[in-house]
Amino acid sequence: MNIGLDPAEPYFQNTDPRVRLDKNDALFVDVIHTDASSIITGGFGMSQGCGHVDFYPNGGWRQPGCNETPLKTVFDSIGKERNVIHGIRRFIGCSHARAALLFTESINTDCPFMAYECSTYEEFASGLCTKGKNPCLSSHKLLDNNSYSNRSDRNDLQTLPSLQCLQMGFNAHKSWTSLHKYMNINTNPQTVRTDSKAAKSETSKENKYFLWTADRSPYCLFHYRIQVLLRYDISGSSSLPEKTRLFVQVFGTKGFTPALDVTKETQFSENIDFVISSANIGTVVRVELQLKSSPALVMNPLRWRLSDSNDSNQIYLIQITVTNLESGNK
């Protein structure tokens, strides 16, 4: 196995595979990209996929906590290194070095560092790659659960396509092997069954996986898919007023997620489907929806009927579903 920790862009990106990291270098090559912006803008890592699996935490560039407030970050780095030169190096290479920190944390943690297959980071962030799919672990747990050893039982869970996901870091190869056994694809490139359409597709395509991480250790976060079904009629319109914002916050037995501005992160409609990340909040106990209207800028509890029955401005909550994508629990 080969593991690429933010492989360098200068003199390597888009070059011949013989002079850079490539999936043909080992039976399994996984790569973590954390500083994939252009070298012109200060990035050191390559964005090009070069492994059997390429992980892009936070999109693969500008990691949380790096370069957000440059002056403060510089002084923090100098303080941690207790040396000006080393501190500046730490600041400049903050995102580049994050790959090693993420991999190191993945060795001794119960948090799975689960990443989700998607074509682009933008599609992942908007929730497009999780809509209409079963939680990812439905395809991994089958291998360890005797109750699903029968192939017909497996097919029962395939009424919807399973969300393909892998663990980033130390357990990447193990989860990759498990996923491919479930998909009935040989994971050994040297003995892959070339008569299998699935095998051909899987070995030739770019396998990009995305996830969110925190700005400091512990970096690992959990991902929650939130589906909200609303019905509203505001003065005859089928949408909220232009300056109205809807926030969603999930509370669990171990904590709560940040309040997310749904109207900012997604295209607002009566059917809202998106993904957020947070430290493990445990079992979900409640979900709060709030409205924020300009210019008051005051968070107000969402009332499903915003006014009395004689007023046409009404919002109805039909259903909320919260799914922990790591565990599949709802």
Automatic annotation (TrEMBL):
A GO CC term assigned to this protein in UniProt: extracellular space
Domain of life: Eukaryota
InterPro entries, per database record: AB_hydrolase_fold, Lipase, TAG_lipase
SUPFAM superfamilies: alpha/beta-Hydrolases
Key words of the record: Secreted
Lipase domain: residues covered: 4-134
GO biological process: lipid catabolic process
Keyword Cell membrane in record: no
Major subcellular site: secreted
Compartment(s): Secreted
Molecular-function GO terms, alphabetical: lipase activity
UniProt cross-references to PANTHER family, sorted A to Z: LIPASE
Similarity remark: Belongs to the AB hydrolase superfamily. Lipase family.
Protein name: Lipase domain-containing protein
